[in-house]
Specification:
Helix content is about 25%, strand content about 15%. By secondary structure, the chain is of the alpha+beta class. It starts with about 25 loop residues before the first helix and ends with a helix.
């Protein structure tokens, strides 16, 4: 976790489409808040929200999870078997 220096807190305005712009200095300090990043929002109390950048998509994070489980399975054979059941 990065240590923040005690500076004045930035005040941002919520726009008409409920968007908030992260101040440039903070974007440079926290590079993971890049354009297009997925951010999870956590309510801490009635007036406070916390932001956390998601590491990646579910598909990216779980790619190859079952490769060891299905290592001995002939995928083409299993697909043909399932497709015959559909007929």
């Amino acid at each position: 976790m990065k240590k923040t220096t005690k500076k004045k807190r930035d005040v941002v305005t919520i726009g008409p489409k409920h968007q908030v712009v992260i101040p440039k200095a903070l974007r440079h300090q926290y590079r993971q808040f890049a354009k297009g990043a997925k951010v999870r929002v956590y309510p801490l109390d009635d007036k406070t929200l916390a932001l956390r950048v998601e590491d990646g998509s579910w598909a990216q994070e779980n790619y190859g999870v079952f490769k060891d489980i299905f290592a001995d399975v002939d995928v083409e054979k299993e697909l043909k078997k399932l497709r015959k059941e559909w007929d």
